[in-house]
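User: Fold this; tokens only.

Assistant: Input:
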Amino acid sequence: MPAPRRPRVEPTDDWEQLRLLAPFPEQRAYELLRPVVLFGRPPAERARETGTADRTPGESFRYTYG
């Protein structure tokens, strides 16, 4: 079996760590929305965790999922 192309990283919800692991804006947008979409977390709570504008996660969710 071939060696993995990149080292494995432990799963995390730490936004600063995720930002380092997601070099592309699309990946960061996905990680910003993921807890809101999958787990029903309030967008304002996610905004506080990530240091984004209060409306950013909610607006992104509405734009993406109607």
